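Support request, please re-run this one:
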Amino acid sequence: RRFDLATGRPLRERKLDMGSVTSLVPLGGGRILVVGLATADLHAQPIAFTLDDAFEPKKIELPIRGGNPSMVFPRAVRVGDGVVITGAGLPLSVYDSKDFSVRNTLDTAIGWSNVAARGEILLAERNRSLKRFDLSTNGQRDLGYGVATQLVVGDGADIYRVARDSRRIAELARADKTTTKPPGENHAVHAYDGKRFLTTRRNELRIHELPSGEIKKRLSLEEGVHLSALTVNGTRAVVANGGVVRVIDLETGEITPKTPGARQGHYIAVGNDGVVLAADSKLAWTVAGSKVTATESFAKDHQIEAVRSTDPRHYVTAKNRNET
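Re-run finished. Output below.
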């Protein structure tokens, strides 16, 4: 679907003969590259289409070879003025963005998965091995092992988050081939403008400077509600937080909207007078009719464990899980 961002209304819609969509890449001139799995089977082959400005589809013939050892989710990314498409049975190749002929094959091994690019630099992962390719020099560099979950190409350093040895860790790989960890605990890493990158931890969004990785700005959203999705467009970040889609101006720190989202109660009790008490692990609130009439939050060392089913004005908290 294509949406009008001013109104949120869908403008065009096209159902494609494929199992799932894993990547959407704007190609310019109203064209969009759509990449995904051919069927609902997670071991299915990759499939790709282009959509023109009228949303008319055209299937791309991909040079798929057999013998891939495991399921691989297809990905696509712009690199230079070409396109890289990965997936089961595909070598790591750069395609012409107009006719999708193969321009250059960077690695003949098949089964590449997650990719990220900026300019002529490409990060790609295959079989728990992460590599950096410089298309301008044909240079390659190994960045270690692990299943990549986020990849970011920056000025003077690349940032990635990988699953390694049963842990998820973020690392900075600098141009001088030194590798360090960004400060703080990071749940996710995201691209910004090449000179900076973003990390998230619970309900906090942080802006880091490159190549040092130093945190330059912290932006907090609704307390106790984790960021569940994020994308960056210019100096704005669009996040999902507490069931609400918010826009953050990364330069000024302004957040729109500022109002909290609807909370999801883990516990609930209804009194004889119709008053409802709902609670999650950190907040309790009462509802009379359709209005919230009172709220109460708790310190970090307390956690709500239960509410009484017969009286919505009473609830039980636990401190350090052993004191009520």
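The mean pLDDT is 84. The CA atoms of residues 5 and 11 lie 10 Å apart.
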